[in-house]
Inverse folding.
């Protein structure tokens, strides 16, 4: 892996004798993802919401804007994901650097063996994702079949290339196996949370993932461009097609279901970060 920040609108009120308007309540919300299994978990705050006022002739109905909401739910997911980057990774990032992979990729010291572990574990995760979409335990998953973003076959070609260069291909390691199992379980019972992982895995790879591939190739592969970082069709259009479908699926969700999806973002970053860290091992 520009957001729209809603502006609190104010409306003048007719003055009435001895009548005061009570103060608006606090609008900030703090969430801890349900079942968050990590001992170092911190409270996760969804972005500040602003009051949305819909004017009528005789009454005003209050509502809430979520950052990015006006552009569609994918923009909401993007907004939350960017906040979980560090400032070294993205200008919108707010997270403090704590792990080596959270630093700018230009400061990494990758190894071929570590990169192979990363590619193998990544393939397992993409195999799992593509299998889940094909099986479609929920009808909405089927909308994302043959999206053009699939990476499993590309990774298989890359691993064959490494094998021809004389490298031994390792078995999947704990980070990849753990994430794949989590995705399988999640996809069977929690479509909103699963869609969060689907979005973050594919869209992150199309952005920051490509930069990582380029920098790693410069340092250890003599600028060899792997198939993992190539797409058969126009990538921006492929992403837009999937973005439109994600927005359409989310239109049927309640606000609570959308928030539940957003809250899963931190888990997605944790699992993906553990796999990414393999490059530096």
């Amino acid at each position: 892996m520009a957001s729209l920040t809603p502006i609190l609108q104010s409306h003048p009120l007719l003055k009435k004798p001895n009548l005061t308007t009570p103060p608006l309540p606090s609008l900030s919300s703090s969430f801890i993802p349900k079942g968050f299994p990590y001992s170092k978990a911190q409270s996760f705050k969804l972005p500040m919401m602003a009051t949305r006022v819909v004017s009528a002739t005789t009454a005003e109905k209050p509502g809430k804007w979520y950052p990015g909401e006006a552009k569609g739910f994918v923009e909401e997911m993007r907004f939350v994901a960017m906040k979980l980057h560090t400032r070294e990774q993205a200008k919108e990032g707010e997270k403090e650097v704590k792990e080596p992979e959270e630093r700018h990729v230009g400061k990494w010291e990758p190894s071929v063996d570590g990169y192979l572990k990363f590619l193998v574990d990544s393939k397992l995760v993409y195999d799992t994702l593509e299998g889940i979409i094909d099986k479609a335990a929920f009808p909405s998953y089927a909308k994302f079949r043959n999206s053009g973003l699939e990476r499993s076959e590309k990774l298989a070609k890359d691993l064959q290339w490494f094998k021809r260069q004389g490298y031994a291909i390792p078995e999947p390691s704990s980070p990849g196996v753990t994430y794949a199992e989590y995705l399988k379980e999640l996809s069977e019972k929690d479509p909103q949370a699963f869609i969060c992982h689907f979005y973050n895995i594919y869209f992150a790879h199309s952005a920051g993932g490509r930069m990582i591939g380029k920098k790693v190739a410069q340092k250890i592969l003599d600028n060899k461009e792997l198939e993992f970082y190539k797409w058969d069709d126009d990538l921006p259009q492929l992403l837009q097609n999937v973005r439109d479908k994600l927005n359409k699926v989310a239109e049927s969700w309640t606000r609570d279901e959308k928030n539940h999806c957003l809250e899963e973002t931190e888990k997605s970053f944790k699992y993906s970060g553990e796999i990414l860290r393999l490059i530096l091992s």
Notes: The beta strands are 50-55, 60-65. Confidence is low (pLDDT under 50) at residues 1-44, 48-62.
